[in-house]
Amino acid sequence: MRDVHRLEPTAASPGRDSVFAAWERFVQGEDHVRGVRPEVAISWHRCREQYRVDPHLSEAPVATARIDHTLEHDVVFTELGGLAVSVAHEVAGLSGIVTVTDATGRILAAWGDQATLGRAAEANLAPWSCWSECAAGTNGMGTALEAHGPVLIRGAEHWCQAFHNWVCAGIAVRDVVTRDPIAVLNISCWRTQLPEAAGGWLFNAVATTQGTLKRRARDSGAELVAAFTQARGRSGAALAAVDTSGKVVIADERASVLMGVPAYTPAVDPAVRWKSGLPDLIGAARYASKVAAHNPDWVGSTQIFTHLAEEPTPISIRPVFSAGHLAGNLISLGATEGAQLPQQAGPAPVPPRGQPRRLVAVREDRMVLLRLAEVYFAESDGNDVWLSTEQGRLHAACQGLDKLDGELADAGFLRVHRRYLVNLSHVREIERGAKGELVLVMGNQTTDMVPVSRRNAPAVRRALGI
């Protein structure tokens, strides 16, 4: 297994000339990027096709004036600032600088070699400039916001030619509940290679902050269990407590049946919380969390489709706070108290008919653009996702099956197991085991068999009409 604390060794990297030649071809419209690391090729694809960043941009744009940070995020920025100063001492001899950005890619502060800071300012590599991929293309800060773990971008791997003399390494601090990025710690050097140890510096620096977030998340889980216990004595409705991402922390017996999760089994640790597999619930919980963060007295209601139910079930959503921090929400199923949630609070709407939708995969040094109909199923292996397709087994560009599940929930794909997402149109047969378990036989040439977990079985039966 690769050591995630280390950046890829410089000696294993392609030469500047070959990467620059691939960059020139890709900028001109070619998709073949031989000699370029897959994570860089994928980032280039986002910059060209999705974000449409001008590769001849000479400096990063100024960040927008709007700031929407929570108190918890401010604590993260403060911790990273102190850690960045210590890292800056490590890279001082390399004429390097260290930056901290927020989740939008806005640089909050920079430290390090004064001469390099002055040169960086010429490209707006300085506070209050935006270095997200959608603003400045492939770079250490912006690409770290899109990835998990340390990211190294060298020379011509930057999407914008004006930044080709820089070497950057970044890592994102992520919310341990939602997995959304909060901040990025980044090292940048001018025409100087970073040592392999730079990945360890970054990883160790953010590990301290991630530990603080994990402890806070466990405290929030305990607060949700306490709020659930107290509310059960006042409510006759089915009741559950969910965190800010929509994962279930605890549910009573009736709610457990509707959500497909164990009853009265607290999941205080965010790493073991229950996924209901209900897109409507997840969308409503995330919307409620955004509203409640600005209006603590808010209570909302909507309708969601649940397991084993043909008709939508009304729910009421009430936020739970701990010391001014939003811990999650209490969900009362069968209740209609509170303001009605807007329709767009649920899953993403289906795109207009005829609009092409593609998945990006990687085969060796080439990107493969797949129509959804070409994909049989997706399988997770940690953060990696593998696609079983008409062109064989391919490594997906996206990180994490949860993200892919959210993107394809409205496109005929269904999560049937914590490790599998299936294109329902390619299910050829259904096998039933001796104990009632289901296995899906796919219609590809190898007739792969995909297991269905017990909690997902009702949704599979409903989707396939069995």
Walkthrough of the structure:
The strands form four sheets. Strands 13-12-16-15-14-18-17 form a seven-stranded antiparallel β-sheet. A six-stranded mixed β-sheet has the order 7-6-10-9-8-11, sandwiched between helices. A five-stranded antiparallel β-sheet has the order 2-1-5-4-3, with helices on both faces. The protein has helices spanning 16-27, 38-50, 71-91, 114-122, 133-136, 140-146, 198-232, 253-259, 279-294, 401-408, 457-464; strands at residues 96-102, 107-112, 151-154, 166-174, 181-190, 238-243, 248-251, 300-304, 313-322, 325-333, 339-340, 358-363, 366-371, 375-381, 384-389, 392-396, 413-417, 420-423, 427-432, 438-442, 449-451. The protein is α+β, with helices and mostly antiparallel strands and 466 residues long. It contains eleven helices and 21 strands. The chain folds into three domains: 10-194, GAF domain (Beta-Lactamase, 2-Layer Sandwich); 217-345, 2-Layer Sandwich (Beta-Lactamase), CATH 3.30.450; 358-464, LytTr DNA-binding domain (OB fold (Dihydrolipoamide Acetyltransferase, E2P)). The chain is 30% helix and 27% strand.
Structural class: alpha+beta
Overall pLDDT confidence: 86
Helicity range: 25-40%
Any idea what the radius of gyration is? 24 Å
Intertermini distance: 42 Å
The CATH topology of the largest domain comes to Beta-Lactamase
CATH class of the largest domain: Alpha Beta
In spatial order, strands of the major sheet run 13-12-16-15-14-18-17
Count of all domains: 3
Number of strands: 21
Put simply, the count of helices is 11
Approximately how much beta-strand content do the residues carry?
25-35%
Largest sheet: 7 strands, antiparallel
What's the architecture of the largest domain, going by CATH?
A: 2-Layer Sandwich
CATH superfamily of the largest domain: GAF domain
Outline, from the CA principal axes?
A: globular
Low-confidence stretches are 1-14, 346-356
